[in-house]
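User:
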Amino acid sequence: MKRRIALTGNPNVGKSTIFNALTNLHQHTGNWAGVTVSCTTGYFSVEDRGFSIVDLPGIYSFDVRSAEEALTRDFIRDEAYEYLLLVCDATCLERGLHLLRQATGLIEDRPEPEIPQVILCVNLCDEAAKKGILLNFSVLEKELGIPVVPCCARKKNGLDQLKKALAKPSPWDYGFHGASPEVSCKACCKTSPEVSCEACPFFSSCSLEPEYRKYPEDFSPRDLASAAVTYSKKNYRTREERLDRILTGSVTGGLLMCLLLVGIFWLTITGANYPSSLLWNLFFHLEEKLVILCQAARLPQWFMEASVYGIYRVVAWIVSVMLPPMAIFFPLFTLLEDLGYLPRIAYNMDGAFHKCKACGKQCLTMAMGLGCNAAGVVGCRIIDSPRERLIAILTNSLVPCNGRFPLLLTMISLFFMGNAGMSARIPATLLTALLLTGFILSGIFATLGASWVLSRTLLKGVPSSFILELPPYRPPQAGKVIIRSIFDRTLFVLGRAVAVAAPAGLLIWLLANVTIGNTSLLLHISGFLDPAGRLMGLDGIILMAFLLGFPANEIVLPIILMAYLQTGYLVEMDDTKALFSLLAAHGWTIKTAVCMAIFSLFHWPCSTTCLTIKKETGSAKWTIIAFLLPTAIGIVLCILTSSVLSAFL
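Assistant: Predicted structure:
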């Protein structure tokens, strides 16, 4: 029978790291509050004893303020479990002791057989040592009367001691649920009568001096922290305070945020070119082999073209274009997270979101949307207010995800770089990064504007206050950052894209090759959409490409090229001059490129994001609104931009 452990503690104390270390799972961890937004269960064993452990959302106080905190409170108060493992931060012990006091008060009213054994795990001891914070664990254990385990989970120090505390024989193994210390060993245990007191596993706990009580008696967290903690360094936070004055300054904070965006995009653009080219050559070399294989097997021509030129080519295209930028962008983003910079971005943006009657935490979910809007929507769970959570969900796709970057980069390189007049003085990749950052900032301003409108129309209300913890600056763990960003983010998003790209490839091939009156269905659809496209400064083929790109934004431009060339399948255009000539021959001008970039920024979310919104809101109504909101913004902006540029060009 597995013993159940409830794992709780303040946010950002390393609960999920301990959970991963014990279970060998890979739950996402991060150097900011609110990472765990739902319960996760894992399993492990110690000395042939099985355990199940439930990682609960972090909680500052059991006077709950959010659904996630209520989930933690209700679990600890009502659920059945044998151990309460409470994790606290060694650098701020008193706060953890306050939570311990509340937790023990919550469980001490349970019937005697249901009272769990409380274990206090003091994590981040290495950070405390660096800051000159010394803890006397003997004092803590003596005063609390429960096991107290020092730990540094990131380095796996103290985990063996924690496992020993869990593996120690407990009353539940023998049906013993708590006897008075005066009761003799043989009277309280359900062991064989022949077993002597000394041989009984509960001899020490049944003596007049029990080794551990089940939970600490009432105590003063402040007094106990004062008795157990000494400081060998004064002003140990001086360096962090100086950094915070720069990173969260009214002027320097926003400037550095923009510079970091430019740097990340520059590194992504510069580093992705070579691996993308390698993947492209590999996949299309394999395509030739697949064609030969199909011909050797004498498969029907239509089947070969549909499977190879349709399904395989679309999937290969998406992977070769999408994977390298993600493999660079996500680790860089995760590094900022590990360093503790993301909460400081939220702090900088809190004032702007507050003026829009939204929540400053929306900045964090917006940043998550840069990688994948579906992930950003799930991240909105960290926002306490249901009204503000809905605002964050509905506006998340206004910030472009990684899948929209290739199209934006193409527009920048083909049309804006040549017209900027600065490419000779500024490196091309840096100028591209600057322009891409400008597009991202326009998405941020659109998010603020849409939040302001929603908070005064569909989602009226007063902005709520929230607790935002600025975590300590921590050196990132490069190995774990790479592994986590690749497996938890890059491959997850890529797998989602491939899953929808395969059927999309078949549909695109059918539309391009099935004809009515010697005209493909693709051109019939684009002809129907052409008047609306012209009004927006685009054309019908572009609108049709965006519609077919609903499963994945990466295939929008390849569909446009396929329709222009009427090839019946996606074609390679790695020659930028030839690509520019093709687009220009079909009427593309700087006005088309500007409107194209605008609609790339502001149009409906992809299919995965829409499904995620439906799951998170449980409402078709809000999913439809989330679909229509960015689309309406994009259409209006394209019409206005087209009208203005037509008057001056």
